[in-house]
């Protein structure tokens, strides 16, 4: 089954700007997929639509066969999203931020705490569980966003420029965390404007430019063409 199927997706913002001009994308279950493109290409718009934060203009989006038009609730349950901006309450404690998120998905408290602990540990944040989010470094906040996105155990994890502004050492540790997660069966889609990041992580790649997909291939074929 496809984790994600996008057909003819367009987005025209209120000011008339056409950010997406008819996008088709297929991401297979278990894939590690990169959406690569320069700033302004339409990556965040695409992710915003998949995660129901942005309304599409036309086209269709299905997540594990659930249409965003007719089964949005089921689609949302299958996705964990890590947006670019830190959007948690800076005054809330790290552990509570992750557990509270689980509550939005109706996950029982005991189970939520268990999963929160598992991901905070694997992301190196367990020691910080009682700190307020504002006390964390930038790299730690980034990892907190990932733990929170995983707490309902979504089948598909989507990350928008996950290592933007992150130093090389942390970038590598995030890469190995994501690689492990994918090996354990999670489908992952990330956006990036570094080919190097896509190359290090992903098996398939689509390149987006000015709201159009200009390349859609597996990483090996792309690299052999460069
Ligand atoms: P990327 O994530 O690839 O940098 P975005 O999806 O954020 O690209 O943006 C694509 C284009 O849409 C950009 O030119 C951006 O300026 C424009 N855009 C984004 N949000 C809005 C908005 N709310 N209104 C008008 N234009 C927007
Ligand atoms: P900064 O944002 O100031 O760079 P970081 O959050 O990057 O601070 O790093 C804090 C520490 O956590 C670093 O020593 C880093 O190596 C470590 N670290 C980063 N990612 C992980 C991880 N996935 N597992 C364990 N430790 C990690």
Automatic annotation (TrEMBL):
The chain positions of domain ABC transporter read 4-226
- Record keywords, A-Z: ATP-binding, Nucleotide-binding, Transport
Top-rank lineage group of the source organism:
Bacteria
Q: Name one GO molecular function term.
A: ATP binding
Q: What is this protein called?
A: ABC transporter ATP-binding protein
Query: What species is given as this protein's source?
Result: Isoalcanivorax beigongshangi
List the lineage, top down. Answer: Bacteria, Pseudomonadati, Pseudomonadota, Gammaproteobacteria, Oceanospirillales
Section covered of the full-length record: 1 to 226 of 310
């Amino acid at each position: 089954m496809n984790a994600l199927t996008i057909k003819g997706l367009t987005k025209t913002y209120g000011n008339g700007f056409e950010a997406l001009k008819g996008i088709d994308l297929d991401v297979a279950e278990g894939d590690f997929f990169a959406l690569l493109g320069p700033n302004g290409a339409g990556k965040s718009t695409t992710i915003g639509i998949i995660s129901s934060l942005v309304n599409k203009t036309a086209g269709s989006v299905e997540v594990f066969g659930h249409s965003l038009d007719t089964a949005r609730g089921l689609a949302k349950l299958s996705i964990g999203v890590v947006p670019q901006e830190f959007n948690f309450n800076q005054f809330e404690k790290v552990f509570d931020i992750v557990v509270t998120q689980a509550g939005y998905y109706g996950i029982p408290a005991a189970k939520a705490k268990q999963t929160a602990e598992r991901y905070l540990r694997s992301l190196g944040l367990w020691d910080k569980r009682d700190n307020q989010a504002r006390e964390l470094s930038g790299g730690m906040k980034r990892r907190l966003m990932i733990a929170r996105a995983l707490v309902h155990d979504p089948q598909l994890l989507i990350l928008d420029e996950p290592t933007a502004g992150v130093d090389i050492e942390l970038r590598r540790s995030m890469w190995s965390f994501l690689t492990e997660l994918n090996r354990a069966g999670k489908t992952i889609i990330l956006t990036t404007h570094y080919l190097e990041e896509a190359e290090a992580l992903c098996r398939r790649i689509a390149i987006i430019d000015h709201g159009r997909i200009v390349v859609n291939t597996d990483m090996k074929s792309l690299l052999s063409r460069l």
